[in-house]
Design brief:
Number of helices: 2
Mean pLDDT: 89
Helix content: 25-40%
């Protein structure tokens, strides 16, 4: 995995199995939290919420949010962003996307916005179909 990874000599990304395992554990925790929330929201009977993780072995370049397949938010992660887990510990390339500027497109906008929504939805659907389900046990969809 190139990113996230440990920052090595001469700023070269270096795979760090312990850091990778930490990231997987965090995703498992997020999956548990989101699945629990989905179950609670679905229990009201007013809506149905599902949560599913997939693992894609590419660099996290695009931050894509799709809402009801009618609105898309898209921005580019700062893939060179660095962080430390501990004050004096090693640095890691680990883009978070908190400050990512997002472009917003809606099907209710112009013809160009409609085309952008269609393109991004197809792109995300293609990535999703190529991504594998994680090895950790996921809860059944709510």
């Amino acid at each position: 995995m190139t990113v996230p990874s440990r920052v090595g000599d001469d700023a070269v990304p270096v795979d760090d199995p312990a850091f990778r395992d930490r990231m997987i554990r965090r995703c498992q925790e997020y999956d548990d939290i989101l699945s629990d929330l989905a179950g609670r929201l679905s229990a009201t009977g007013r809506l149905s919420v599902q949560c599913e993780y997939r693992c894609y072995p590419g660099i996290p370049r695009d931050k894509i949010c799709i809402f009801n397949r009618v609105q898309v938010l898209h921005g580019l992660y700062d893939v060179s962003a660095r962080m430390r887990l501990h004050e004096m510990g090693p640095e890691f390339y680990d883009p978070k996307g908190y400050r990512t500027d997002l472009n917003v497109w809606s099907r209710e906008g112009t013809a160009a916005a409609e085309a952008a929504v269609t393109t991004w939805i197809k792109h995300f659907d293609d990535l999703w179909s190529l991504a594998r389900r994680p090895d950790w046990p996921q809860r059944a969809a709510a």
